Amino acid sequence: MTPPLTRVFAHHEVENTGSAARDFCMLERNLLSHLKLALLLSLLSSSLILRARLVPDPTDHSSEIESKASLPLASVQLAAALVTIVAGYWEYESGCRDLRSMTAFLVGVKPHLALMSVVVAAIFATCIVLLAGH
User: Fold this and answer.
1) pLDDT at residue 87, rounded to an integer
2) Domain locations along the chain
3) Poorest-confidence range of 22-31, 45-54, 61-70?
């Protein structure tokens, strides 16, 4: 029995036939895109907690809705960032597994779509709340 970390970081050699290299690069690019989105969501979460603005307004009178909603919205954005990381890792692992077993993997993965739909809903709800505060 191999230790769990050995299985995670094990080296798997896949024969480079057809589009295997291109498909692996696509999987890596998608994982990095998910990580970039998670970083942006965590940055948004931090800016909501700190009430930071890109362009500071000296006559800033934060609305009551925005000040009351900043901590819950920041929590939602942080949760969305974590869900994005999980969804990206899920897609990467399932794609690599399919690549190793030489099966088609370009079909939509339903758990990934469901997780990313939750992230989109969180982003959309945040936009509505922040726009309603202005």
Assistant:
1) 92
2) 20-53+61-133
3) 61-70
Q: How far apart are CA 23 and CA 106, in angstroms?
A: 9
Taking 3-state DSSP, the helix, strand and coil percentages for the chain, each rounded to the nearest 5, stand at 70, 0, 30
Distance from C-alpha of 41 to C-alpha of 44, rounded to nearest angstrom: 5
Residue 53, class by beta-carbon neighbours within 10 Å (0-12 exposed, 13-18 middle, 19+ buried)? exposed
Rounded Cα–Cα distance for residues 115 and 98 (Å): 20
**Tens digits of per-residue pLDDT, 86-126?**
999 988 888 888 877 777 666 666 888 888 999 999 999 98
Do residues 70 and 46 lie in contact, with contact meaning Cβ atoms separated by under 8 Å?
Answer: no
First to last CA, the chain: 59
Does position 65 have pLDDT exceeding 60, yes or no? no
Nearest CA-CA partner of 86 in 41, 31, 126, 27: 31
Query: Is the pTM value of this prediction over 0.70?
Result: yes
* Lookup: tokens for 73: 């919205």
DSSP 4: H
